[in-house]
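Q: Can someone sanity-check these two? First one:
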Amino acid sequence: MQRRTFLGGVAVAGLAAPWLQAWSAVDMASAPVGLPLLASDLLPAGATLRELPKLANASSTPGHFQATLTAAPLTLPFIPGHASTEFWAYNDGLPGPLIELFEGDMVEITFINNLKQPSTIHWHGLPIPPDQDGNPHDPVPPGGRHTYRFNLPQGSAGTYWYHPHPHQYTAEQAFRGLAGPLLVRSREDPLAELPERLLVVSDLKLDRYAAIAPNDANDWMNGREGQFALVNAQHQPVLPFDAGGRERWRVWNACSARYLQLALPGSTLTLVGTDGGLLEAPQPVQREYLLAPAQRIELIVDAGSLRDRIELNANIYPRGKMGDVSPDKAMSLLTVDFTAVRATAVAALPGRLGSVADLGPVTAHKQVVFSEKMNMANGSHRMQFLINDQEYDMGRVDLVSKVNEVELWEIVNRSDMDHPFHLHGTQFQVVERELGGVITPAPFRAWQDTVNLRSNEIVRIKTVQRWSGLRMFHCHILEHEATGMMGQLKVV
């Protein structure tokens, strides 16, 4: 029997995070699939894209950033004619407020947890010590608070974000709204004069009553995708393009599992930065760019001869979903209005943007293998997501590294679907990819903390950890992380 055919006829349990406590796999026999959802045309669209509010700095000392983030329920009249929708939000905003920092800053952010679940704040991608990174071992209880303190090293300018990372609760807290953008800026940014757009793409799944729907069977198996994709918490907004004909876009994929095959027909797109900062030189984008869950990019968008309204789309990307799922459809994320553009030409981009120096000789090797397995013990069908044939265990150390030792990690995807690999506490460099026995070197060096792997693909990365302590590595499809696809790295 073919595995995919078999999966199409069974159901994975629709477990929401609070009920995962005793589960190391997903029970496939008892949860519904495809609960009735709100019609996608009921969410208003077409408003002007709003700018993201910033988290205010309470400190008057230069180089010191001090603020408070509070996680709490937030009720909004989101759908006209329906009951209000309860989200969970940082500082009563969706997404959470923009945190804007500079290299060299000393940061102190107090987290207040007004949820009924334990939570943390994980500073996704930031090079900071493990004990300040909101790992699952450091939960803040309901009603509690914790102050995160860290320095931002020189060379850390990039596009980051923050979100919860409590064991067994991450997926639910994220899909209810807890995530926000974070920028680390350089005072010597070669693109600082360009108009900048910040686009945080998130996913929203509402039931027929406009309440946030719990995960169903397919969500736990494939990763959660709702019927709406939002930009800055708006449905298909309109972005008025700058009259000068060129903008710098920073784009976050803050979705639990949705892949964004980005396309803006007729425009010229140039990749200038990835998760951890600027590339060494601009790289042209051919038609589309794939942004996997948790990844971020910086793009230069040139209007060229466009003077009308063009949709920024998330085109179909076949990532290998399993089970009885509806066919994927292209989605419009927003409309770019080029009608105000007056420029007839733009200057050439700088030939050199930043420095992405090779990490140096490799002195250690590691292998991480993603896999999935059907478990039919005791008459119950269970789907297991594994790393190195094991489910996540908070009490187990899976790998050991040494501080400042350059390592080559071989990430292997032996599963039937794509998985985005994320390593905490550092940025890495992709060296090469291997698929079907064909090795393809990375076309350029870049700083990344998340990389996608296709089914049966191998990705090799160079990385180094700068602090001792415990780090996580996992699939950033949050439902897969929750159901076992995470490991622990001890740095000594």
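And here is the second, same format, sequence then tokens:
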Amino acid sequence: MATRRKRLIVASLALAMLLNPLSASAEQEKLSASEHRQLQELTQQSGGTLQIQWDQKRGTPSYISGTLSKPLRGEPIQQALKFLDSIKALYHFDSAKKTFQLKSVHTDELGMKHVRLTHICNSIPVWGDELIVHIDKNGVVRSVNGEFTPDLTKNTERLRQPKLNSDDAIKRALEDVLPKQVEGKPTAALYYFPYPEPDVVTLAYVVTILDMSVPAEWKVFVDAISGDVVHKYNNIKFKK
């Protein structure tokens, strides 16, 4: 997959792209014209401080830092969405407002605002996809990090409505993990689940089951169309 070929872009490479995009492209990897253009714009804006690291599986940035914007006006969510719209070619989406849902805003002791955004598609959240936009007290975006799966609109055209309901999904999950001592009622929430590859997307219920006999907090991914269990793991982490 072409997206796997992208790698770390540091400031010197970004500057090379600005001065000589064709030779830098040959040196780096193949990027689209719109990606080149937005990288050049970011390089100009950052004054040579730009750093980008690419997610090798998804082909989208996992980390961007530098002086990434001019001072932005409005509430933190408005600032974050405006900035993401300015670099949407790097993430391959059409509209930040339609693509992200606010999860939280945290302001630290330095006045830096950390805007946490969930990726949504067809009003359904995407499991594991989240971007955090870090904005200083002057409204300047300083960094963005997180995971983002591109092209989900294209890869979910036939995955808009579940055939199972949440109760069916919970039943399938219980049959799979066979818990011995369930605490509370299991819950099920609908997600898009890009697994095992970003372009292989399942509409899935994520069922949470607490089994105190193990102990375990099972996360069981039940295909909302077929009813198959496609993935599961114990979310309880043990410290040594």
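A (reply): Looked at the second one. Helices lie at 11-19, 21-27, 33-46, 76-86, 88-91, 96-99, 152-155, 166-177. The first helix runs from residue 11 to 19.
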